[in-house]
Structure formats: structure tokens, C-alpha cells
Specification:
The structure is a single chain. The chain is mainly α. The protein folds into 2 domains: 153 residues, no CATH class; 45 residues, no CATH class. Strands 1-2 form a two-stranded antiparallel sheet. Helix 1 packs across helix 3, helix 4 runs antiparallel to helix 5 and helix 4 packs across helix 6. It starts with 17 loop residues before the first strand and ends with a helix.
Length: 220
């Protein structure tokens, strides 16, 4: 039983149970897409059916991670299969457990308000946005925001963080951003702002069917 109900896996050379960050990121990407499409469907069409199913799937998956074992969570199993040919990147299990506790709280709140009470409000909207932000940062950047909170609350150094961000070390040249690069980003943002100002009137016009327009011209 102890082998089944266990958070994290023992890997030689690591003092504490660890998880594979690569499969966690893959799972976060899967859940992000599911939640994104569900929220867009609810916000755009007013159809909350997909979102209700998504909340149940998300809550069930993360409860399996916490109360049984991450090895049996469907999203992590799929994530493991997807990245099976990649070298594992180990991350300490304790900070991930804390981050997923936050996820359970958010998902449970959504389940009660949206599924059981069958309601929506600014609360459910904010929770959806927070979940998307957490999942996006995990999948896109490998940054676990819940793990950041873990370090603030427990005032202790987390072990085995993705990309070794827990270790204090000098950055290599390829990791540094120069003032010129920062200026390029600012100029790019200003460029996009100017484009939106000068071309907004054209952009809001609904595009026509190219081939229908061509056909009408030829018929004339």
C-alpha cells in the first residue's frame, strides 16, 4: 500500500523524493489547453457545459496526484508518454505538493460554485484566470508559481528546482540580457501600439471571402 500511496519517487543520488519536471510541464500544457478552450466557450458562447467537465477533470486529476500518487494521475501519465524519449529533469516533490494543494483549493472552489451551485461570478472568473496563469507559466516557462509561494511561507530553501533556479550562481553570458535587447523589446511594444492606433479602423472590418469576391468580379 505504501508503494501505491506515495508522493514523489526515490531516485538514486537525490536526498528527497522527486518528480520529473518534463512530464509535469507536458501535463500542465494539456490542462492549459483544456481549460483555455472551455473558458473561451463559456465566455464567447455562454455555454458552460465544457467548462463544468473541465473543472471535474482538473479536480479529479490533481486529487489523484495529492492523495494517491502523481504516478497514477491521467495527465501526468500522458505527459510521461509524450516526453518518454527526453532525459528526465528532476524537481523536489515537497514544493510541487504545496503548489498542487493550491490547485486543489482553486479547483474545489470552482467545483462548488460552478458545478454544484451552478453559478458564475467574478469569483469564478478570477479563479479561472489564476489557473490559466499558473498552468501557462509551468508549461511555457517551467516556472512553478506555487513553488515560489512555498519558499516564501516556509522560509526554507527548496531543493532540486527546475533549471537549478534554487542554486545561487552567476549567469552565463548566453543567459544575460543587455540594455540594447531591453530597448529592442520596448521599441517593439511601441511599434505594436502604433500599429493598433493607425490601422485599428481597417483591422476591425470583417474580411471577405477571397474566392467569392473573385467570382463576383469575373461575373461582372
Amino acid at each position: 500500500m505504501a508503494k501505491i500511496v506515495k508522493f514523489g519517487e526515490d531516485v538514486e543520488g537525490y536526498a528527497i523524493p522527486v518528480l520529473n519536471e518534463r512530464e509535469i510541464r507536458a501535463a500542465a500544457g494539456i490542462l492549459f489547453l483544456m481549460m483555455l478552450f472551455s473558458i473561451q466557450n463559456a465566455a464567447g458562447k455562454g455555454d458552460f457545459l465544457m467548462l463544468k467537465y473541465a473543472v471535474i477533470i482538473f479536480l479529479t486529476d490533481i486529487c489523484i496526484r495529492l492523495f494517491i500518487s502523481p504516478r497514477f494521475a491521467p495527465s501526468l501519465i500522458i505527459g510521461r508518454f509524450i516526453v518518454r524519449n527526453q532525459t528526465p529533469e528532476y524537481v523536489g516533490a515537497p514544493q510541487k505538493k504545496f503548489a498542487w494543494i493550491i490547485g486543489v483549493i482553486l479547483a474545489m472552489t470552482m467545483f462548488v460554485l460552478l458545478v454544484l451551485v451552478n453559478s458564475y461570478s467574478v469569483i469564478t472568473g478570477l479563479i479561472c484566470m489564476v489557473c490559466l496563469i499558473f498552468l501557462f507559466f509551468e508549461s511555457a516557462f517551467g516556472i512553478c508559481l506555487g513553488c515560489k509561494v512555498y519558499s516564501w511561507i516556509y522560509k526554507e530553501k527548496a531543493q532540486y528546482c527546475p533549471g537549478e533556479v534554487c542554486d545561487v550562481k552567476s549567469k552565463q553570458a548566453i543567459q544575460k540580457t543587455s540594455g540594447v535587447q531591453g530597448l529592442i523589446v520596448m521599441v517593439f511594444i511601441a511599434y505594436i501600439a502604433l500599429v493598433s492606433i493607425f490601422f485599428h479602423g481597417n483591422f476591425v472590418v470583417k474580411p471577405h471571402n477571397l474566392f467569392s469576391a473573385e467570382s463576383s468580379v469575373n461575373s461582372d
